[in-house]
């Protein structure tokens, strides 16, 4: 078990990146908000398998992507356990900046993502969320100047927003999307799953089940709007308050009416008690 180097400043992280690059190593950045689970660690594994021998995991609960009514204060913060997990898989570096390193006095520049950030999915329920995500990810990519950055398909719209932003702003870091890690019963791993009561945890599996069966029926040619309406009904009947269940084009996130309009991605967001869960699946 080798401990990751902990960087608190951009300068320290950049010095390590320059050193590793000088040694000929390729470097991947893995931005997270901490409360690490196997899904986050799978991003590190993916980076390694793709030739990035150095990995930096960033841990920063970014205030600008939370609305006033959301869980910024309550978001799980488990730094010591996170560092142990990173050590267990030999992660080289962990960038965990204090808020003032990211947003010093006078900071005032916003990033206004369009296109996939306005697809009418998460943005309908979290209108300022992707501006905050784009802002912090643009900063992290510029700060680290890594060769690649890995993001989970779990946050499918976020991944599309980041790909688009990196392209539009000529950020040279290569962006990778990594498949979702799931619990044994199919629930997508998430730091927010710790909010679920035992009863809610049992109910939560319904989301991935409905995604699976809907994707299967869609592949078999059943009517798309009808299938989405039925899925919404089942999720509501299972005790969730549904935000959306939609079939979208996997790249543009535009609505799709027929299988031939694909590749199709199913995306769902629903609340179980005080916990908001999101998931998605390829058709
Ligand atoms: P978060 O800490 O929730 O902001 O997530 C940090 C990164 O890990 C994002 O790119 C997420 O999409 C990714 N991620 C979160 N959960 C999973 C999962 N279950 N499988 C794969 N990647 C994930």
Descriptive report:
This protein has 283 residues and is an alpha/beta fold. It has 2 domains: 5-178, Rossmann fold; 191-278, 2-Layer Sandwich (Pantoate--beta-alanine Ligase, Chain: A,domain 2). The chain is 38% helix and 19% strand. It contains 10 helices and 9 strands. The chain has helices at residues 10-22, 38-49, 79-88, 99-102, 122-125, 129-144, 156-168, 198-204, 206-219, 224-237, and strands spanning 5-7, 27-32, 54-59, 93-95, 148-152, 174-178, 241-249, 264-272, 275-282. The strands form 2 sheets. A 6-stranded parallel beta sheet has the order 1-4-3-2-5-6, sandwiched between helices. A hairpin with a 2-residue loop joins strand 8 (264-272) and strand 9. Helix 6 (129-144) packs across helix 7 and helix 9 (206-219) packs antiparallel against helix 10. The longest helix is centred in the middle third of the chain and has 16 residues, at 129-144. The chain starts with a strand and ends with a strand. The mean pLDDT is 97. The structure holds adenosine monophosphate. The site of adenosine monophosphate has 17 residues, from helix 2 and strand 5.
């Amino acid at each position: 078990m080798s401990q990751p180097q902990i960087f608190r400043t951009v300068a320290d992280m950049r010095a390590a990146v320059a050193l590793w690059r000088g040694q000929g190593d390729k470097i991947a950045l893995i931005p997270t908000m901490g409360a690490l689970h196997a899904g986050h660690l799978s991003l590190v594994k993916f980076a390694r398998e793709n030739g990035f021998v150095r990995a930096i995991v960033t841990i920063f609960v970014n205030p600008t992507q939370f609305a006033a009514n959301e869980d910024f204060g309550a978001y799980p913060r488990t730094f010591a356990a996170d560092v142990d997990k990173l050590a267990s898989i030999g992660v080289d570096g962990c960038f965990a900046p204090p808020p003032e390193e990211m947003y010093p006095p006078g900071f005032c520049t916003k990033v206004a993502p369009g296109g996939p950030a306005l697809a009418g999915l998460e943005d309908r329920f979290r209108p300022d969320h992707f501006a905050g995500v784009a802002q912090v990810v643009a900063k992290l990519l510029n700060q680290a100047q890594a060769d690649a950055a890995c993001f989970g398909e779990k946050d499918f719209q976020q991944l599309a927003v980041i790909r688009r932003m990196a392209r539009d702003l000529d950020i040279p870091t290569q962006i990778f999307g990594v498949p979702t890690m799931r619990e044994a019963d199919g629930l997508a791993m998430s730091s927010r799953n710790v909010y679920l009561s035992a009863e809610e945890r049992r109910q939560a599996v319904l989301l991935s089940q409905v995604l699976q069966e809907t994707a299967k029926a869609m592949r078999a040619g059943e009517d798309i709007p009808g299938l989405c309406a039925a899925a919404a009904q089942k999720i509501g009947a299972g005790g969730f308050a549904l935000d959306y269940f939609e079939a979208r084009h996997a790249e543009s996130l535009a609505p799709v009416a027929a299988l031939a309009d694909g590749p199709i991605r199913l995306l769902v967001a629903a609340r179980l008690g005080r916990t908001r869960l999101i998931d998605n699946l390829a058709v």
